[in-house]
């Protein structure tokens, strides 16, 4: 059958993309591709946040290759210029065409040059060979691909007077968003980020969203200290961590790890057999390793700068 490529259209393609990612995951849990949860997080949360910040909708950053109406290749990125490539097993011959399409359509123009950025798993050896042949260079920063097999999860411990609370108990999206945002941005403590708030309001509409997998910690005075959420896909019985955040004044006392362990145990009670996370630096990798995650692969960032 002839293979065609076309732009993504949410109404007709959203479920098809999730099915494609789920099939490849079920065939190989270490399949070098986005999990279905990450795609849904992008569609419902991050896309909303970027639009609120003045960016174009992300749908132009998703491109499909199909054979007889079924997806066999996928190019996806959070924003233009950030490109990830995934193919169905047996379709690696599509890589050259996918790279060419992306170079022509997904570059960022800066100072009269085309800037290309591709995120490629080390397991995608054939794709790396193509990029090297075209003079792409790998940056020093790697993303660590980590999983938790859920066989043994430590008992979480909290300082005296602190306690876990869940999204089923705290419904205030603005409050929960603030706690998460302030953890990532201590310099903005006390200021609401409206883009993040709108993004999380839309996340609550996502089919996979389940507030029982939102976990927070309260201090003895009832103030929220930290926030974590795990996207649970019941179809694959897997979870994806996004995000984990602790406010600056509560760091260095084990709250982040305890919170992560608590929500992992809740996931396991609900049938989850594997959890995934993609930290992008060493200290985050060490943090997740302390909670039982193990690295199974890496993703490199490959760049090329060309004259217009």
TrEMBL record:
Signal peptide annotation: none
Record domain N-acetyltransferase: where: 168-308
SUPFAM superfamilies with a match to the protein in the record: Acyl-CoA N-acyltransferases (Nat) (SSF55729)
Pfam families: Acetyltransf_1
GO molecular function: acyltransferase activity, transferring groups other than amino-acyl groups
UniProt-recorded name of the protein: N-acetyltransferase
Organism: Blautia pseudococcoides
């Amino acid at each position: 059958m002839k293979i065609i490529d076309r732009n993504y259209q949410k109404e007709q393609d959203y479920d098809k993309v999730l099915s494609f990612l789920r099939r490849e995951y079920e065939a190989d849990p270490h399949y070098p591709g986005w999990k279905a949860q990450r795609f849904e997080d992008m569609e419902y949360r991050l896309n909303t946040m970027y639009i609120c910040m003045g960016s174009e909708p992300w749908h132009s950053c998703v491109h499909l290759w199909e054979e007889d109406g079924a997806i066999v290749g996928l190019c996806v990125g959070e924003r233009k210029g950030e490109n990830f490539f995934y193919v169905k097993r047996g379709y690696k011959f599509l890589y050259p065409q996918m790279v060419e399409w992306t170079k022509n359509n997904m570059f960022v123009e800066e100072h009269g040059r085309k800037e290309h950025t591709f995120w490629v798993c080390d397991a995608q050896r054939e794709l790396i060979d193509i990029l090297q042949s075209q003079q792409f260079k790998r940056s020093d920063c790697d993303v660590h691909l980590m999983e938790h097999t859920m066989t043994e999860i430590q008992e979480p411990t909290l300082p005296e007077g602190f306690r876990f609370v869940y999204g089923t108990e705290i419904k205030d999206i603005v409050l929960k968003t603030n706690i998460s945002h302030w953890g990532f941005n201590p310099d903005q403590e006390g200021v609401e980020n409206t883009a993040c708030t709108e993004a999380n309001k839309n996340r609550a509409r996502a089919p996979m969203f389940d507030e029982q997998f939102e976990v927070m910690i309260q201090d003895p005075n009832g103030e929220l200290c930290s926030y974590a959420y795990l996207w649970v896909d019941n179809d694959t019985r897997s979870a994806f961590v996004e995000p984990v955040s602790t406010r600056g004044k509560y760091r260095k006392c084990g709250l982040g790890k305890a919170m992560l362990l608590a929500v992992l145990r809740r996931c396991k009670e609900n049938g989850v057999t594997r959890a995934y996370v993609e930290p992008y630096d060493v200290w985050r990798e060490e943090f997740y390793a302390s909670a039982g995650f193990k690295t199974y692969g890496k993703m490199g960032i490959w760049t090329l700068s060309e004259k217009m």
